[in-house]
Design brief:
Radius of gyration of chain B: 21 Å
Distance between the termini of chain A: 10 Å
Structural class of chain B: alpha/beta
Oligomer: heterodimer
Strand content of chain A: 25-35%
Largest interface: A-B, 20 and 25 residues
Number of helices of chain A: 2
Number of strands of chain A: 4
Distance between the termini of chain B: 28 Å
Largest sheet of chain B: 7 strands, mixed
Number of helices of chain B: 11
């Protein structure tokens, strides 16, 4: 199963996204941002890539600003 | 502490704190400990969650939809400085009241020397502000109105909603210093049309000292806000320029995680009890104190004299007594802890007619009891009869 991550400008939004996604029953995890995506020292939200559209829709609806969504493969 | 003390200096900082606040802080120090927003490991993330939840609860308390617009800092003073220095430019006109604390007055007086146009509108001897005074003071270059919600000297509440409406009608920013009221009196940014709300964590929100912050309303464009400090935020680390988004824009350097863990627990306490219930209890204590004082020969009570129109901060004096002696004797002979002097608000004391001698200030919290108020009244009565 491929994994994806959502990037955020601030840890604040990453933690908010995690809370919202978990409340919706999605299996997600906050992990350090992979080096190839950004040199940022923050965290991103990892999810199963087949949930991409659902995660994106959920976070958009909640008004969580996202910086990007990437497949980790 | 062997003898039972009666702590009536909650306007300075609340004491005692709810047990849950102490437990949350020790738990943070023992079990969490990471630096929020810096690293990707579980303890950093857990620490970030603590800060996030504190932010969410502040947002919930003040009717703010987007908690990223809550920025944490050391105290209300820092928040007020951020709002003033971050947004005002030379030539801007600012209106404030004569009842303000030095946390507002001192930065404004300093900015005045750098070209700020400042109007201090007078309040009545009871500390009331007529919103028409604000309306009259507005000029073409008016940019901001700054008011405390309640005086830290006499507790008198200022009319936020009428002033908020005036500000909105004139396109002026409205900043409120809620140091004495956040956690006691309902505040809603939308209803009262507040653009900037400075709060402290260590008074009626029952957090520890070293916590506070500024709520930045939607009408404030953060792109025009200059932070007081710049530095590491854990975000956009590839750039040497400060992030331009909230809350990171205004939160450089390691935050007070342990303090915010305590503040979060304090907020849970306040939200759990309910602000209406807290206000009711404090109103009852205030009314009992004022009525009791008025029966003591020689007692002078300043402010509104009406518990409906003020928070649980009461200033008093006894005829023929120097305030410092009265406060000292209450402490030494009765274990009753009050604050004496000018309470960092010389303009407010000029307004109520107690400059420069000051007053004895009794300030209560939800955790004070009617019995403690009665004991205090008995003690003041005893001293009044003895004479200075």
């Amino acid at each position: 199963m491929s994994l994806g991550v959502v990037l955020f400008a601030s840890t604040h939004f990453a933690i908010r996204a995690e809370k919202i996604a978990k409340a919706k029953g999605f299996t997600v995890k906050l992990i350090p941002v992979p080096r190839q995506l950004s040199s940022d020292c923050g965290v991103c939200l990892r999810f199963s890539w087949d949930l991409k559209s659902k995660i994106e829709e959920t976070l958009n609806q909640a008004g969580v600003p996202m910086e990007g969504i990437h497949c980790l493969d | 502490m062997n003898e039972k003390l009666i702590y009536l200096d909650n306007g300075a900082t609340s004491f005692p704190k709810p047990e849950a606040v102490i437990q949350a802080m020790t738990a943070f120090m023992r079990e969490v400990g990471g630096n929020p927003g810096r690293s990707g490991h579980r303890l950093s993330i857990e620490s970030g969650r603590v800060v996030f939840e504190a932010r969410e609860k502040i947002a919930a308390l003040f009717g703010v939809g987007d908690s990223s617009r809550v920025v944490f800092g050391q105290n209300a003073t820092e928040a007020i400085n951020l709002g003033l220095k971050g947004l005002l430019r030379s030539g801007d006109h600012v209106i404030t009241s004569s009842m303000e604390h030095n946390s507002v007055m001192r930065p404004l007086r300093a900015l005045e020397k750098e070209g700020l146009d400042l109007t201090v509108v007078p309040c009545s001897r009871e500390g009331f502000l007529d919103p028409a005074e604000i309306q009259r003071a507005i000029k073409k270059n008016s940019r901001m109105v700054v008011l405390n919600h309640a005086s830290n000297v006499v507790g008198t509440l200022l009319p936020l909603e009428p002033v908020g409406n005036i500000c909105r009608n004139h396109g002026i920013l409205f900043m409120v210093d809620a140091a004495q009221t956040a956690g006691v009196i309902p505040i809603d940014l939308e209803k009262e049309k507040i653009d900037l709300l400075a709060f402290t964590g260590h008074k009626a929100l029952f957090g520890p000292p070293g916590t506070g912050g500024l709520v930045i309303g939607r009408r404030v464009d953060e792109k025009t806000l200059q932070p007081l400090k710049r530095g590491g935020t854990g975000s956009r680390s590839e750039f040497e320029e400060q992030p331009d988004f909230l809350p990171d824009l205004c939160e450089s350097g390691t935050p007070n995680g342990v303090g915010l863990a305590g503040l979060r627990a304090g907020l849970e306490f306040v939200l759990g009890v309910g602000i209406e219930k807290i206000r009711d209890h404090e109103r009852k204590l205030t009314a009992g104190l004022i009525q009791g004082l008025l029966r003591i020969p020689g007692a002078l009570v300043y402010g509104s004299g009406d518990a409906e129109k003020q928070c649980a901060v009461v200033s008093l004096n006894l005829e023929k007594w120097v305030p410092s002696e009265l406060s000292f004797r209450l402490d030494e002979e009765f274990g009753i802890l009050t604050r004496v002097g000018l309470h960092c608000a010389p303009s407010a004391h000029r307004t109520i007619g107690t400059f420069p001698e000051g007053t004895v200030r009794v300030s209560m919290s939800y955790l004070n009891t009617e019995e403690e108020v009665e004991q205090t009244l008995r003690a003041i009565n005893t001293l009044a009869r003895k004479g200075a």
